[in-house]
Amino acid sequence: MAMEIERNKQKETEASTNGIFAQMEKYGHEQVIFNYDKATGLKSIVAIHDTTLGPALGGCRMWPYETEQEALQDVLRLSRGMTYKCAVSGESFGGGKSVIWADPHKDKSDELFQAFGSYIETMKGRFYTGTDVGTVSMDFVSARKQTQYLVGLPEEYGGSGNSAIITAYGVHKGMKATAKEAFGDESLSGKKIAVQGLGKVGKRLLDHLFEEGAIVTATDIFDDNIRMAKMAHPDLKIVPPEEIYGVECDIFSPNALGAVLNDNTIPRLTCKVICGAANNVLEDKRHGRMLFEQGILYAPDYVVNAGGLIEVAEELHGFNKERAFSKAEQIYDTLLQIYSYSRDKGIPTSEAADELVERKLDVISRIQSKYMC
Ligand code: NAI
Fold first, then answer.
1. For residues 85 and 27, what is the distance between their CA atoms, to the nearest angstrom?
2. pTM of the predicted structure, to 2 decimals
3. 371 or 325: which carries more pLDDT confidence?
4. Is residue 33 within 8 Å of residue 45, measured between CB atoms?
5. Is 200 a catalytic residue?
6. Nearest C-alpha to atom 39 of ligand 1 is from which residue?
């Protein structure tokens, strides 16, 4: 009996291990690390996708995932996105990401983030991390007691501060480039825009959109965020979260979580353009093609939302705000190049962006393969 239990246990372990390797193989990951801290109960996963371009860089997401598998899936997808985002933005960093499996509204403490920092320190600079959904710059002031490999700390701690400001700036530029391609005019004045998510990025994006004279409808799952957005912009229309997909609009802007463009939502969209900050908005690669076939111009997420990455990467080279914003402005031209490539080849913009990035990674890895004396 004891042997049978042992054998079953072994089988279970093998199955889960094979499962993880299979997923790493699917996305092309280099390394996945599970961290558990007994003292604080911290459960975190760090995924390093590809370090061809340099040490891995990517935020830390804190989320109450329903299952371990869901957390793993998220960190794998997000870290892969970072490889593409670094490459397309011309930053010499690889793709990585971390997740903390906990509720950001209930489980935060100085000790939890110190424990997280202690694990980041063990990687000795192979991975740099900072804020993402569920975390804010101040959380990393705690982590900083244990590690130096952090980005996006508050300005008073020598960091570049809140990356959502530059991310929203980049999304606005990207939206103008995408409007130019889709409507022949970059102006957003009078355009009907549906915004999903009024968090750190979404609420700042609203400032840009209202300043340009857009007509905005938005949603969020937190009443406080809606209340604050309405206070700043009394003309903002609000709809319940599930209704946002069906709102009649020119542009849909996802700024909440991933996988929101899928078999259920795409047929409900009325827009001609999709452009927002949320990472991994396509549930699957084929949804990029579905949008293409439906005549919707999709601004690839990792291109549009690169502002935050550009800022924190700049921080590691000696931070200069002006240089960071001028680099983020290039999101406009990068998107136009992707749209032109997509048109020439007759392929979805999501595939066009991936092809251009993969070509670049291939060239750099061949440059680096030279023998050094
Ligand atoms: P956040 O956590 O401050 O905001 C997300 C907002 O989405 C929250 O207000 C939340 O209540 C809302 N939300 C969640 N599920 C929703 C749903 N089903 N319907 C409507 N609203 C919902 O996060 P942040 O920083 O604003 O990021 C937003 C997105 O942009 C995320 O996907 C993030 O990964 C991405 N991103 C953020 C960057 C940054 O610099 N903050 C940089 C690059 C990407």
1. 15
2. 0.89
3. 325
4. yes
5. no
6. 164
Are 300 and 341 within 8 A, CB to CB? no
**Distance from the alpha carbon of residue 132 to the mean position of ligand 1, in angstroms:** 8
Q: How far is the CA of 258 from the centre of ligand 1 (A)?
A: 9
Pocket lining: 288 vs ligand 1, CB cutoff 6 Å: no
Q: Tell me which residue of 200, 213, 204, 196 sits closest to 172, measured CA to CA.
A: 204
Which residue has 């009649």 as its token pair? Answer: 248
Extract the runs of DSSP E, i.e. beta strands, from 18-132. Answer: 31-36, 43-50, 56-57, 60-63, 94-101, 127-128
Report the alpha-carbon distance of residue 244 to residue 358 in Å, rounded: 34
The pLDDT of residue 6 is 53
* Shortest-distance atom of ligand 1 to CA 203: 26
* Residue pair 202/133 in contact by the 8 Å Cβ criterion: no
Full DSSP string of 273-315: EE--S-TT-BSSTHHHHHHHHTTPEE--HHHHTTHHHHHHHHH
CA distance 245 to 241: 9
Distance of CA 146 to the CA centre of its chain: 25
Check residues 102 and 366 and name the one with the higher pLDDT. 102
Mutate to test the pocket of ligand 1, among 99, 133, 206 (most ligand atoms within 8 A of CB): 133
CA dist., res. 249 & res. 211, Å (int): 18
CA dihedral 97, 100, 103, 105 (to 10 degrees): -70
What is the 137 CA–ligand 1 centroid distance (Å)? 15
* Mean pLDDT, rounded, for 249-276: 97
Ligand 1 centre distance from Cα of residue 45 (Å): 20
Ligand 1 atom nearest to 61, measured from its CA: 34
Q: How far apart are CA 179 and CA 224, in angstroms?
A: 31
What domains can be seen in the chain, in order of their start residue?
Answer: 2-157 (3.40.50.10860), 164-307+334-353 (3.40.50.720)
For residue 352, what is the DSSP state? H
Which of these is catalytic: 9, 38, 43, 97? 97
Which atom of ligand 1 is found nearest the CA of 257?
A: 32
Q: Bigger pLDDT: 365 or 301?
A: 301
* Residue bearing the bigger pLDDT, 194 or 17: 194
